[in-house]
Structures are given as C-alpha cells and as structure tokens.
Write a structure and sequence with these properties.
23% of the residues lie in helices and 36% in strands. It is α+β, with helices and mostly antiparallel strands. The strands form four sheets. It has a four-stranded antiparallel beta sheet, with helices on one face. Strands 6-7-8 form a three-stranded antiparallel beta sheet, covered by helices on one side. A two-stranded antiparallel sheet has the order 1-2.
Amino acid sequence: MRVKGPKGELARDVPRQISIITEDGTLRVERGSDEPTQRSLHGLMRSLIANMVTGVTDGFTRRLEVNGVGYRAAVSAGNLVLQVGYSHPVLVPAMPGISFAVQGNAITVSGADKELVGEVAAQVRRVRPPEPYKGKGIKYAEEVIRRKAGKAGAKKK
C-alpha cells in the first residue's frame, strides 16, 4: 500500500487477509473472516492507513522542552545538537523524512511518518531524561514531571 501527498510518500505492507478497496476517493478496509486475529489486523491496518493519509497531507509533530541551567539545543545542517550537561555536545542525526526546529527551549520534531516522529522524539528525550528532584532534562511538552522532596536528614542542631 502506497500513499502519496504534498508532505511525501509512505508505503506499508498489508497482510494478505486484509483487502483495501478504493471507492469514490475513499479507502475501505475489509477482512476475510471474523476470526480474532483477522479482526485485530483489520483495526490495526485501518488505523495505520488513516495515520499514513494524515501524515502525507498534514504531517505529525512532537514537541519537547529542554530544562536546566546551561542546557541548549540548536539545529546544525539539519541535525540536532544538544548541550545538556555532558562534557561534549550530543549530535542527534536527522533521519530521512524528519526535520528539527528549535525555538528557545522548545524542540519540534516533525515529519510525515507518525511512528518515525515518535521514535526520534523518544531518542532525543533519552539523551537526558528529566530527573524528579530539580526537573532538569528533556521532556515532552505535555509531560508532567512529578517532583520529589530533597534530603530531609541534614538539619542543624
């Protein structure tokens, strides 16, 4: 199955139990029988094809935030360069079909393939995950970090 649009072209293999029918500009996904495995494949393929169509027409984005004193992100030659407390900058290469944008402390990962956008965003977050004591690190924009109290044992007498 191939889907082509203004944002690119995506392809995916369709299991032989599932058939895709095009009628009047709409796609219909049908299954051969009512077995549980075919029913689950039917729903999965319907969702994947809907995501492919949305991706090539509108695209997908994932926003991340960099929090921490001296933590920075920049785009250089299409790749993402992170300075997040290590002795060296960390380079996250842009995969084909993925683009990075940085504005202030916000990183935007965008592309046509929803699965690939999510995976690259997870790789960026994995460079320095947020920690619960000071909240430093890279987190998803909608993610809420549960903060912990610091040491309570060091009190003056």
